[in-house]
Design a protein that fits this description.
The chain is an alpha/beta fold and 158 residues long. Helices cover 30% and strands 19% of the residues. It contains seven helices and seven strands.
């Protein structure tokens, strides 16, 4: 179980981590500024295991890989949205941040509610109500467990 942080449609990567913070040398320094323009205290309030729930086209805009990286560094367990921008999706899987498509959830939850997400079964539960989502198959779960595609490939080469 984790708390929901709810965001609108078309959240772009500049809203996730603004370009001026890309000058910081590490993701650890950048993460304190996640969602600063939308929810200034997000980084202070989010806890490991919390979730982001969003509408359509989450992660649109530039291809900056720091956008999913700051979310993972803050401990976001998964992003659940109606849809994702393709490059954001790819960057998230590369670093091991689960992205789940759940078309119905957004209209039925509020920020601050508790979410339970079963990645294997593809079920999100909030307030006793369950919603069908994409399932993570065992192969993909193994990649995520290893820290993402890049970490998985590094292990294969070793």
């Amino acid at each position: 179980m984790g708390k929901i942080f709810k965001f609108h449609n078309d959240v772009d990567t500049d809203q996730i981590i603004a370009s001026q913070y890309l000058l910081y040398p590490t993701v650890e320094e950048m993460k304190e500024h996640a969602f600063e323009s939308l929810e200034p205290d997000f980084a202070a309030r989010v806890r490991p295991g919390d979730y982001i729930v969003a509408g359509e086209n989450f992660g649109c805009g530039s291809s900056r890989e720091q956008a999913p990286a700051v979310l993972k560094a803050l401990g976001v367990r998964a992003v659940v949205a109606r849809s994702f921008a393709r490059i954001f999706f790819r960057n998230a899987i590369n670093i091991g941040l689960p992205l789940i498509v759940c078309r119905e959830l957004y209209d039925h939850v509020d920020g601050g509610e508790e979410l339970e997400l079963d990645l294997t079964e593809g079920v999100a539960t909030v307030g006793g109500q369950s919603y069908s989502c994409t399932k993570i198959n065992p192969y993909m779960q193994n990649i995520l467990n290893q820290g993402g595609l890049l970490a998985s490939l590094d292990r294969e080469e070793a």
